[in-house]
From TrEMBL:
Listed transmembrane segments: none
Organism listed in the record: Corynebacterium argentoratense DSM 44202
Protein name per UniProt: Phosphoribosylglycinamide formyltransferase
Gene Ontology CC annotations of this record: cytosol
Active site: 116 (proton donor)
Pathway(s) served: Purine metabolism; IMP biosynthesis via de novo pathway; N(2)-formyl-N(1)-(5-phospho-D-ribosyl)glycinamide from N(1)-(5-phospho-D-ribosyl)glycinamide (10-formyl THF route): step 1/1
Pfam families in alphabetical order: Formyl_trans_N
InterPro entries: Formyl_transf_N, Formyl_transf_N_sf, GART, GART_AS
Tree of life domain: Bacteria
Function, as annotated: Catalyzes the transfer of a formyl group from 10-formyltetrahydrofolate to 5-phospho-ribosyl-glycinamide (GAR), producing 5-phospho-ribosyl-N-formylglycinamide (FGAR) and tetrahydrofolate.
Keywords: Purine biosynthesis, Transferase
């Protein structure tokens, strides 16, 4: 008799248009299910999540502007409380434009992952595509990695290469990276119980 595990429960953090979130939502199957979508501000990603059928996730905006830098720890705690209510196995930072603090990582460290548009450890930070072009890179790509207290420094789960074409600008290169990024995050989530364990911090 085959022992079929329950689908991986996925919470997604988003801040922008939600195109990566949409790919994750659309690809749900018996391997994973999106149980929650959380944003730091009202955004299109939240609208996408609210429209999604037939399995709508918990959807919540934990608005950073209600707290600000001085109260960042309180915001991190509230975000962690909100995510915890969806009982996720893994948290995906999908275009989430806030650095997660220790208050969040104390609860979800080792099971929070991020996508980054470069082959880490090359070109960390918010301008990875621009930095790759400025450095004259012939090949860049995208990485799924664990989130830790640093900036794009957590253990790598998977990477895929994207060639830099002659005449590429930041926009054209980033669009090709995003196409690969969407495919990769879905593949990682579908096989997370083996891929994630291989790279998990402390594992």
């Amino acid at each position: 008799m085959t022992n079929n595990p329950e689908p991986l429960r996925v919470a997604v953090l988003a801040s922008g248009s939600g195109s990566l979130l949409q790919a994750i939502l659309n690809a749900q199957d018996n391997s994973y299910v999106v149980v929650g979508v959380f944003a730091d501000k009202p955004c299109e990603a939240i609208d996408r999540a609210r429209r999604h059928t037939p399995r709508p996730p918990i959807v919540q905006v934990v608005d950073f502007s209600d707290f600000g830098q001085a109260r960042r720890p309180q915001w991190n705690n509230l975000l962690a409380d909100s995510v915890a209510a969806s009982s996720p196995d893994v948290v995906v930072s999908a275009g989430f434009m806030r650095i997660l603090g220790e208050e969040f990582l104390d609860r979800f460290g080792g099971r929070t992952i991020n996508t980054h548009p470069a082959l880490l450890p090359k070109f960390p930070g918010a301008h990875a595509v621009r930095d790759a072009l400025a450095a004259g890179a012939k090949v860049t790509g995208t990485t799924v990695h664990y989130v830790d207290a640093g900036v794009d420094t957590g253990p790598v789960i998977e990477q895929r290469e994207v060639p830099v074409h002659p005449g590429d600008d930041e926009s054209t290169l980033h669009e090709r990276i995003k196409t690969v990024e969407r495919e990769m995050i879905v593949d990682v989530l579908r096989d997370f119980r083996s891929l994630g364990t291989r790279a998990r911090p402390g594992g």
